[in-house]
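Reviewer 2 asked us to include a model.

Predict the structure of this chain.
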Amino acid sequence: MKLSKKILTWYDNNKRVLPWRISQTSKKNQYYRILSEFMLQQTQVKTVIPYFNNFVKKIPNLKALSKSNEKKILKLWEGLGYYTRAKNLHKTSKILVKKYNGLIPDSFEKLKELPGIGDYTANVLLALIYNQPRVAFDGNVKRVLSRVSNINTDKAVNLFKTKRNGDLAEALMEFGALVCKPKDPKCYECKINTMCAYYSSKSKIKFKRKIKIQSKSYDIFCYLKKSKKQIALTKSNDLGFLKKFNLPKIQKAAKKNKNWKFLCNYKNSISNKKLNLNLYYKFSSKIPSKYNWYSLNKNKEFIPSFTKKIFKQITHLY
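Predicted model (C-alpha cells):
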C-alpha cells in the first residue's frame, strides 16, 4: 500500500472533529477555511476552537466580515494574539467581496496578493477548497516527510497520486500533530512505520529549533484615577509587537522619576520574546492629551492581553 493511501486510511479513522471541517459543497466552507487558517497561524488547534466558534456566531459569513468594523473584529480576536492576522483577514475579506464576488480565488498568484496570505496559507487553501495537489509545509508536515526519508526535507516524495488531494494535505498535518509528534512520536503504533527510514534507522535525524528567544526589559508607567478605578491608555506608544493598540506609558529600561511609585516586577512572553517588566504607577486626575481613561473592570472596547495583564497587577491598589 502506498504512503498516501496509508495516511488517508489512518486519517479516515482517526481525524479530529473540528468546527471548520465541513462539506466542501457547503456555502460556508470557503469562509470557515480562510477564517480558521488565519486563526491557526502560530496558534494551536485547541486554543483556536472556542475563538472560531464564537467568531462565526457573531460574524457568520465573508460578506458580514467585510462590513464589520475593525473594533468588533479585534474584540472577538481578543486574547488570541498576533492581532495583525485579524486586521489582514478584515482587509482580505473586503477585497474578496469587492473583486472576487465573495469567492476565494483558485490561483496561487492571486491568493498571494491578498493581505496576510503567504506560500503556506495559499497552498493549504488551494488544497482544502479546490482539491489541488499541494502540500502545505507547516512544522507537522515537514516533520512527517523528513522522518519518512530520515533526511530534513521539504519535498513531497511523490505523494500525490490520489483524487483526494485536499484530504491528503489535511491528513499529513493531522498525522504530524497526533502521531509523528516533535517529542515522543508514537512510532510503535504508527501505520506507516514499515515505510519509515526514521523508525528503522539507528542514527535518527534531529530537528533544531530555529526561533531565537529575545529578552527585553521595559518600564511601564500607569496613570490611575482612584475614584473611578480607571487607567489611562494611549495608542501613541509602540512596543513593536503591539502597534497602535491601547497601552500605558512604556519605556525601555528608563530612569524612574520620583513622582512614580514602584509596584512590582513580573515576566511575560509574547511570540519569541521574553519580557522583563517593571511596573510603576501614580494616581492622577490629569493625563496627557493623547491618553483616555479606561475602566479596569468593564472593557467594551478591545484591549490586548498584554495590557489586561497589567490591569491584574494594579487592581489591588483600589
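The domain at 3-200 is CATH 1.10.340.30 (Endonuclease III; domain 1). The chain has twelve helices and six strands. We have added this to the supplementary material.
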